[in-house]
Specification:
CATH architecture of the largest domain: 3-Layer(aba) Sandwich
Shape: globular
Largest sheet: 7 strands, antiparallel
Radius of gyration: 20 Å
Order of helices and strands: HHHHEHEEEHHHHHHEEHEEHEEEEEH
CATH topology of the largest domain: Beta-lactamase
Length: 400
């Protein structure tokens, strides 16, 4: 993740007076266990347990915009507990799950918490935010701020003109098929994801744009998929430039307030003031589940869609081959060939959506490792299948 987001927490000496008095339990716990490394990937498990629910309250990270809720709350009525054919408590322990909310047919079929987290808390999204950002592209097209996803990116971000991004369309950014060379290895200090976090922006330019306009091309645009957080950050700059609004205020305007999220959320800002749109929303697990319900319901407010009619189908189905059987990548959504799709972030953040079963599974976790597809990743996929099987088992008697 971004080292400059999770910068060294050396504020303690300067802030030890009045701040300590006002700090809540979570903050005091974090201050008592300060990381010795600035990168979240090297925080201890205990530091992450506290840090993931306090990202927007750590003074050195506290530059964030509010995603304001509205006056109404989208109801999440309780349903009959879902009988899942596995030990859910053991699963949550193995996953180090902080929050789990399962909605099916619009009702809460399961809601559980761990790691001293509660329904009232907010947990970081990490890359789950990418799917929020891509949805705002669709909204901007519907509102007339963006003409088409086939437009060149540099038409909306003039500072990219003359770079490798001159040949890249908005659609190719959304599907991560720009062909621009990028290294997302979080463990490599020379990777782009590490270097661009340390980059000093050119005067008057967004820090991400300043770094990425110097990158070389490695493949023709549209021909190669490579996961690139930096390009989602570019998408956020593009939306803000087109709408003349912050990404947070636009998300509040289009979704958060009118759909009825229960709590204000926040979105961390980069060094030049744009939201870190490839990461870093702080929201409750229940509101992540509500966003899943919003998307599954066609992204509609009072029956009126906020997205173009032809947006959601391609956005949530395979547009790029990621080299994994049965899976793909849409417009910043991970897709499954069975029609389900998901927003995913490191350390176990996720919103899984299965329209066929009217099912949403929102989860926030602190996995032992940032990514571990062969253990916790496999466990999560098995859990999704177990929930799907439980829903199918309930439906069978109705079909007789």
């Amino acid at each position: 993740m971004k080292k400059w987001i999770f910068g060294a927490l050396l504020f303690v000496a300067a802030a030890a007076g009045g701040f300590w008095v006002s700090a809540d339990k979570d903050m005091k716990a974090l201050i008592s266990h300060l990381p010795t490394d600035s990168n979240v990937l090297f925080w201890s498990v205990e530091q992450r347990d506290v840090g993931f629910r306090t990202m927007d309250r750590i003074p050195i990270l506290a530059k964030a915009n509010v995603i304001a809720k509205g006056d109404k709350v989208y109801p999440l009525p309780a349903g009959e507990p879902l009988k899942i054919g596995m030990d859910v408590d053991a699963y949550m322990k193995a996953q180090r799950t902080a929050g789990l909310v399962i909605l099916q047919d619009g009702k809460v079929r399961m809601e559980k918490y761990g790691l001293d987290f509660t329904a009232q808390g907010k947990w970081t999204s990490f890359s789950v935010a990418k799917s929020f950002t891509s949805t705002m592209v669709g909204a901007a097209i519907k509102d007339g701020y963006i003409k088409s996803i086939d437009d060149k990116v540099s038409a909306y971000i003039p500072d990219l003109k003359g770079s490798a991004y001159d040949d890249v369309t908005i659609k190719q950014l959304l599907t991560m098929t720009s062909g621009v060379k990028w290294n997302e290895d979080y463990t490599d200090p020379k990777s782009d994801v590490a270097l661009f976090n340390l980059h000093k922006a050119e005067k008057g330019m967004d820090v991400t744009v300043s770094y990425m306009r110097k990158l070389p091309r490695e493949a023709p645009a549209g021909t190669k998929w490579v996961y690139k957080t930096g390009e989602t950050n570019l998408i956020g700059v593009l939306v803000s430039s087109a709408t003349k609004k912050t990404l947070s205020s636009y998300l509040s305007e289009k979704v958060w307030a009118p759909f009825g999220m229960e709590q204000d959320a926040t979105w961390l800002l980069g060094s030049t003031g744009h939201e870190i749109s490839g990461c870093c929303i702080q929201a409750s697990t229940r509101d992540y589940a509500r966003f899943g319900a919003f998307i599954m319901g066609g992204a509609k407010i009072n029956g009126v869609g906020i997205l173009p009619d032809d947006w959601l189908a391609p956005a949530t189905s395979k547009q790029a081959d990621i080299g994994m059987a049965g899976k793909g990548y849409g417009y910043q959504w991970w897709t499954y060939d069975d029609g389900s799709f998901a927003a995913q972030g490191i350390f176990g953040q996720g919103i899984f959506i299965d329209p066929k079963r009217n099912l949403v599974i929102a989860s926030n976790s602190n996995w032992p490792k940032a990514t571990d597809p062969d253990t916790v990743g496999v466990q999560r996929e098995a859990f999704y299948k177990a929930v799907q099987a439980a829903v199918d088992a309930e439906a069978k008697p109705l079909l007789k």
